[in-house]
Specification:
- The chain is α+β, with helices and mostly antiparallel strands and 184 residues long.
- It folds into two domains: 77 residues; 97 residues, H-NOX domain (Alpha-Beta Complex), CATH 3.90.1520.10.
- The chain contains seven helices and six strands.
- It has a four-stranded antiparallel β-sheet, with helices on one face.
- The protein is globular, with a radius of gyration of 16 Å.
- The model has no long low-confidence stretch (mean pLDDT 89).
């Protein structure tokens, strides 16, 4: 079973509380199956959680709090990226080319996820592609969350006039999920 660090739930809780207050977090918890409620409610950043539970929480977020607007998964991804990078890290990363930063982010993936592998390819000074391979999940909302995360990560490291396209998706039947980013 694929697993993700509990930092996901810490960020999700912060995101929901910022947008919907404590009542929003309570609604999300109450909308989960009973067997999963305690795990999510008591999650800690260093714990490991099944990827299925992460995906289920994204679906509940969109269904219950987002009125079925899938864009909410994307917006959470952006928020999650902001939570993951400290201001000091952002300052240092701004000095590097965004493609270099994405290469390094791919290397850090295994600290937070025990599945999948990122393949990063620079395609010139202002373009890079990133593919998540060996991934056991094929879920549209998970990909939207990752898209939001990648977009915000690029922005935080200084990419201007950013365009990121999700060119391949396992949820659409492709064998991997790929993104291509272009910036000034």
């Amino acid at each position: 079973m694929a697993r993700v660090k509990g930092t996901f739930f810490i960020a999700l809780k912060s995101f929901i509380r910022a947008r919907y207050g404590n009542q929003g977090w309570k609604r999300l918890i109450e909308s989960l199956p009973e067997k999963d409620r305690v795990q999510v409610e008591m999650s800690v950043s260093m714990g490991w959680f099944d990827l299925d539970l992460i995906v289920q929480a994204l679906h509940v977020l969109v269904e219950v709090l987002g009125g079925r607007d899938k864009q909410l998964a994307y917006e959470f991804g952006r928020f999650d990226a902001e939570q993951d990078l400290t201001k000091i890290q952002r300052l240092f990363l701004r000095m590097a080319n965004p493609a270099y930063v994405i290469e390094k982010a791919g290397q850090y993936w295994s600290r937070f996820c025990d599945f999948g592998e990122w393949q990063i390819e620079r395609q010139g000074k202002n373009q890079a592609s990133a593919s998540l391979v060996k991934c056991s999940i094929a879920d549209e909302l998970y990909c939207l969350e990752l898209s939001g995360y990648l977009n915000r990560l690029f922005e935080m490291v200084g990419a201007k006039n950013l365009q990121v396209e999700h060119t391949q998706c396992r949820a659409r039947g492709d064998d991997k999920c790929s993104w291509v980013g272009k910036w000034d």
